[in-house]
Amino acid sequence: MELRQLEYFREIANTGSINEAARKLNMSQPPLSYQIRQLENELNVQLFERTHKGVILTAAGKLLYDRAASLLDYARSTELEVSQTGKKRVLRIGITPTTVGTVMPFIAEFSKKNPDVNFEVHDGITYTLYDYLQEGIIDISVVRTPLRLDDVESAVLHSEPMIAVSNPEMPSEGRKSLILEDLVHRPLILYRRYEKLIMDAFHVQNLVPEVFCLCDDARGATLWVKEGLATAIFPQSMEPLCEGLTCQVLDEPDLVTKILLIWQKGRKPTAVVQDFMDVCLK
Predict the structure, then answer these.
(1) Is residue 213 located within the same domain as residue 231?
(2) Same domain, 90 and 108
(3) What CATH number has the domain bearing residue 101?
(4) Based on the domain organization, do 95 and 19 belong to the same domain?
(5) Are the beta carbons of 167 and 226 closer than 8 angstroms?
(6) Does residue 78 share a domain with residue 28?
(7) What secondary structure does DSSP assign to 152-185, as a single string?
(8) CA-based, 20 to 30 A from 277: which of 155, 173, 229, 254?
(9) Are 122 and 92 in contact (CB under 8 A)?
């Protein structure tokens, strides 16, 4: 199995057409079809089903599609790192969208102290970056709890409370903070990532919240709030997404999320990773 075959395979999957993939790859269709047949023969599976509209992935093809992305990322990362040997060090780091503001001051300080270091940044949700770390695609990552930490080493960069985000027309009594009891009679929007954390905090106090909506996109949830449909509960660092809305801190010890550095367990950090950790954890 060759890297170029995986690149060809993913291009066909992305376009749903061997002819269109050949056009984008600047090659003719027969050799592209031949490479895919070779790949299928080597793996002893069928990767595509032919339809009147083009091709679709089989179950085996879907599995290879996901794995191929990681393999190609790792190959490109290795190529960059090897090409920079003796010239520049490379820090391969994962960052979630909601932790950028927290980690950037550390990155800026680290960069000033280590001008010989370039960065390879992978963006993604916490669970995606966790997998990248385990697969060796990144060296270290910035993630947010809740998260299972059995298979990684970790250190806390920052802890923050949750906030209640509501339409300005809803009565807030001018208070800067609330407790969960204040939210019992409000319809709530919960970011699915924190559903269990939030519901457990309510249940510990024998409170039953009215969950109006579960969502996966904080930006989308703010639109519901702007329409006055419900109050959303987010980590405090998401407050910049809530312009024009009322944000009140939830004064609840059980409703705290932590921003962590994580790295592989049982593996000594490389020199560049250790230098970065020293800046972050001093």
Answers:
(1) yes
(2) yes
(3) 3.40.190.10
(4) no
(5) yes
(6) no
(7) EEEEEEEEEEEEEEE-TTS--TT-SEE-GGGGTT
(8) 254
(9) yes
279 close to 97: Cβ distance less than 8 angstroms? no
Cα–Cα nearest to 276, from 122, 99, 92, 153: 92
Instruction: Tell whether the model's pLDDT for residue 84 goes beyond 80.
Output: no
One domain, residues 101 and 210? no
Same domain assignment for residues 113 and 132: yes
> What are the structure tokens assigned to 186, written together?
């409000």
Q: Give, to the nearest 10 degrees, the angle between helix 126-135 and helix 59-83.
A: 70
Give me the number of domains the chain comprises. Answer: 3
Domain shared by 236 and 197, yes or no: yes
The residue range of the domain holding 9 is 3-69
Q: How much is the pLDDT for 161?
A: 94
Kindly state the percentage of the chain with pLDDT values over 70. 96
Pair (54, 182) in one structural domain: no
What length does the chain have? 282
Structure token digits, residue 218: 């904080």
Distance CA 211, CA 263 (A): 35
Element (H, E) at 48: strand 48-51
Cβ–Cβ < 8 Å for 201, 190: no
d(CA 277, CA 266): 16
User: What's the whole-number average pLDDT of the chain?
Assistant: 89
CATH number for 10: 1.10.10.10
81 pLDDT band (50/70/90 cuts)?
A: low
